[in-house]
Amino acid sequence: MNAESNNKDYSKTNRIKIHQPDADKADRFNPRNRIYVRAIDGLWSSLRRRMGWVAMLFFLILPWIPWGDRQAVWFNLGEQKFHVFGLTIWPQDLTLLAALFMIAAFALFFVTTYLGRVWCGYTCPQTVWTFMFIWFEEKLEGARNKRIKLDQMPWSFDKIWRKTAKHTAWIVLSLLTAMTFVSYFVPNREVYVDVFTLNASGGIYFWVVFFTLATYGNAGWMREIMCIHMCPYARFQSAMFDKNTFIVGYDAKRGETRGPRSRKADPKEMGLGDCIDCDLCVQVCPTGIDIRNGLQYECINCGACIDACDQTMERMGYPLGLISYTTENKLEGVKEKVLRPKLVGYGVVLAVMILIFIYASATIAPVRMDIIRDRNQLYRENNQGLIENTFTLKILNKTEQAHEYTMSVEGLNNYKWYGPTSVTIAGGEVLTLPVSVGVDPVELSSSVTNIEIKVKTHIDGEEVEVEQESRFFSP
Q1: Where is each 4Fe-4S ferredoxin-type domain found (predicted)?
Q2: Number of domains the chain is built from
Q3: 400 and 272 in a common domain
């Protein structure tokens, strides 16, 4: 996957060097060289667009789904609560979030080992938003050749209104993206109402403006620069590739030697392969590479070049699949191996992590208790002659409804509880309750006694009990 292997100069067909008349000398790795992506229809392009629209709509709609008196997905950083439909994740449960990130990581490793960079080509936000921005570009400035001519033309009314309309559409989409993203952390009605009525806080305005500019810059201007120069995934994905990984590949044995010809000409008589050197595969590539030069780390496996090549093959009356999803072994005529140790290993770890996450989510306790001993005094003798220890109980109601909780102690005989034995805690609240436990010295056989403080409640008709171990000190 050597990026320097691309020796063919195709800058005439795919890049225009801004403010440089000698465009033929343009370097495709120079961020100042713009790629004019050509629109293409086909199986993989249609699949990518549909997946992009689904991902976009899912992102936009999710904060608006109601769940009781709140939105279904709400990352409440102020109260340190993550609401995901009926599940509330507290700071004490952040191991669930860590497990979720591990599942996402191993899912990415598994998919990359098997199908290459399909995440980049079909579901990566950078790709989804970039293609949406390109869609606005095509609708307002025209097809690829028209956009090239428009950028080369001097400024005129036609050029000004088209550029203005395009950038306005980009900014509106960027603003919608930013406000939707902020809505995952701030209630959506507050975001949309307060921002437009100028009643939002400075923090909300900052993040809305920040993510608006980030989206506008990434999808409108940087585009393939993010994939080629900044995305770390492009750098380490080669460690997961092997010769059985599905990639977008060009069948050089069938395609070479390249050359133009008429539809009626026999390529074998002309000493040519099936590739007519139309360069459409380069023109439709969002990262500007020539897939005919072999596997390159810039390829995001979007399949646009497959659709372009298949259309050309169909017009020429040649078999499809000159460029296709294939493997290096298949291109070399070696038998493919679907199941291999690395893929099986990723799959097993992924399955185990998913099972652990499901179990942990299903068994998450709806109540939590922490015990803090009085650090100023291990024990004291009260006026009744009892040895008394003081504790501070922190009881967290992790549900969204109020419940009554009762406290008790195990490990002590004939103890006396100083403080309320029953409390009611509102949903999502933490109660700090100082209590003391007194015991007659004759009931104690050691200076340190292991005890358990228990909290019981009833949730949805079922008894829920949590317990916490502590120590009872005495002379």
Answers
A1: 266-294
A2: 2
A3: no
**Residue 412 belongs to domain spanning:** 367-473
Looking at 323, 345, 364, which one is the last position of a domain?
364
How, if at all, do strands 66-67 and 70-71 pair? antiparallel
Q: Looking at this protein, which amino acid is placed at residue 354?
A: I
Q: Residue 438: left (phi > 0), alpha (psi -120 to 50), or beta?
A: beta
For residue 445, the 8-state DSSP code is S
Residue type present at position 357: F
DSSP state of 155: P
| pLDDT average, residue stretch 381-404 | 89
Q: What is the pLDDT of residue 401?
A: 83
Are residue 284 and residue 218 in the same domain, yes or no? yes
Amino acid at position 373, single letter: R
3-state secondary structure of 321: coil
Host H or E run for residue 128: helix 125-141
Domain endpoint, select from 341, 364, 387: 364
123/127 Cα distance (integer angstroms): 7
412 and 290 co-located in one domain: no
Tell me which residue of 89, 94, 55, 61 sits closest to 184, measured CA to CA: 61
Please, what is the end-to-end C-alpha distance for the chain in angstroms? 74
Other Cβ atoms less than 10 A from the Cβ of 455: the count is 20
Q: What's the rounded Cα separation, in Å, for the pair 161 and 156?
A: 9
Residue 315 and residue 418 share a domain: no
Could you tell me what percentage of the chain is helix, strand and coil, using 3-state DSSP and rounding each to the nearest 5? 45, 20, 35
For residue 124, give Cα distances in angstroms to 24, 56, 57, 145: 32, 11, 14, 27
Domain CATH for 371: 2.60.40.10
Q: pLDDT (tens digit, 9 = 90+) per residue, 127-151?
A: 999 999 999 999 999 999 999 999 9
User: What pLDDT, in 10s, does the model give residues 197-247?
Assistant: 888 899 999 999 999 999 999 999 999 888 888 888 877 877 888 899 999
Same domain, yes or no: 337 and 379:
no
